[in-house]
Design brief:
Number of strands: 0
Order of helices and strands: HHHHHHHHHHHHHHHHHHH
Strand content: under 5%
CATH architecture of the largest domain: Orthogonal Bundle
Largest sheet: none
Radius of gyration: 22 Å
Shape: globular
Helix content: 55-70%
CATH class of the largest domain: Mainly Alpha
Oligomer: single chain
Bound molecules: magnesium ion
CATH superfamily of the largest domain: Hypothetical protein af1432
Distance between the termini: 53 Å
Number of domains: 2
CATH topology of the largest domain: Hypothetical protein af1432
Length: about 375
């Protein structure tokens, strides 16, 4: 890590872990964060959680796990190019979706509605809860005891109301400061990954066609280029040749634009990065527009597609019915959740019970949630 830029996260300037631990012998502190995330229970569950398309509908769609790996890949390339801390960027990316409910955004919206009277539910905040509280791996503490820099990166957004309850990681939302550059990078790597893989999955699912995509300038630009270079190719190979160019354009622009902004800003430490009023990592205006147009297309044509909406309806129903049943009678939850639930209820009343139910549901994979729903509501199903 000798090649790190002055503005990168340096281990010796870290704000540390919540519980002090001896330094690792063969790894950096941020590598240890990454390794703890990879070994966590929540990370393994990502394989059976939906990104946009329900996992059991087809084996080739992205899941939260493969999405997170693609995000980490993109972030590592950019981190190396602008001399950021690669291990930290990777750790943040691998952890960024750990708090997602089953069934993608539909599940999160439904759970948020269920939790309306009890502080709401937000997947970002839940990701932080997973690494700070919910993982049960270590004798001395709850959670994974990650470094401050990794935790600030995982908490991408946060309302003022929640920020004031979070201590150190909440401060920047109150003081209107920025996170370190590795965290800023993770946001963009996430966007690049999902915008492009949702095109791929959307075509695979038959929701959008190449003809429709020609209305998207970023797609059209590289579609024409690929057709001119390789008039004979078609199908998956053609799509992939276009998508790799789109990703390359976005990543290259992100590297060049961020490098220029960092140079112009003169920032020389992670502290100087944090106290600035705006992100230093980002696209150029022209490429930002291309990316935005792609995003709008996906919103209209994929995420609002009737087939996706039907899945959304089912997901909301499953989450709502599970929540209502467990909240009305926590005795229906498996022992470990019921016990923590009653402990929390003793301390915090109904809000504590609701949070225990939300934690249980948020931790479910798509197929576990469906099975659990069947076990509760289908008289023919074994309990
Ligand atoms: Mg993501």
């Amino acid at each position: 890590m000798t090649n790190l830029a002055a503005y990168a996260a340096h281990e010796d300037q870290s704000r540390g872990r919540r519980y002090t631990e001896p330094k690792p012998s063969y790894r950096s502190e941020y590598q240890r964060d990454r390794d703890r995330i990879v070994h966590s229970t929540a990370f393994r569950r990502l394989v059976y959680k939906t990104q946009v398309f329900v996992n059991h509908e087809g084996d080739l769609y992205r899941t939260r796990l493969t999405h997170s790996l693609e995000v980490a890949q993109i972030a590592r390339t950019v981190a190396q190019a602008i001399r950021l801390n690669e291990a930290l960027a990777e750790a943040i990316c691998l952890a960024h979706d750990l708090g997602h409910t089953p069934f993608g955004h539909a599940g999160q919206d439904a759970l948020n509605e269920c939790m309306m009277d009890f502080g709401g539910f937000e997947h970002n905040l839940q990701s932080l809860r997973v690494v700070d509280e919910l993982e049960e791996h270590y004798a001395e503490f709850n959670g994974l005891n990650l470094t401050f820099e990794c935790r600030e990166g995982i908490l991408k957004h946060c309302s003022y109301k929640n920020a004031i309850t979070l201590g150190d990681v909440g401060e920047r939302f109150i003081n209107r400061q920025q996170p370190g550059l590795e965290a800023q990078l993770a946001n963009f790597a996430d966007e690049i990954a999902y915008n492009n893989h949702d095109v791929d999955d959307g075509i695979r699912a038959g929701l959008i066609s190449v003809e429709e995509l020609s209305a998207v300038p970023l797609f059209d630009l590289y579609y024409r280029e690929v057709r001119a270079l390789h008039p004979q190719i078609a199908g998956r190979r053609l799509i992939h040749e276009v998508l790799r160019r789109m990703i390359n354009r976005l990543v290259t622009d992100l590297i060049d634009s961020s490098a220029a902004r960092l140079r112009d800003s003169g920032v020389a430490s992670i502290h100087e990065v944090r106290v600035r009023g705006a992100f230093l990592v980002g696209f150029s205006d022209a490429t930002g527009t291309l990316n935005q147009e792609l995003k709008s297309f996906l919103r209209e044509r994929v995420y609002k597609h009737y087939k996706v909406q039907r899945m959304t309806l089912k997901a909301r129903r499953v989450v709502r019915e599970l929540f209502d049943a467990f909240f009305a009678d926590p005795g229906l939850m498996p022992d470990e959740h019921r016990v923590t639930g009653s402990r929390r209820e003793a301390a915090q009343g109904p809000a504590g019970r609701a949070r225990a139910v939300a934690d249980y549901i948020a931790g479910m994979t798509d197929r576990y949630a469906i099975l659990e729903h069947r076990r509760l509501f289908d008289p023919g199903e074994r309990t």
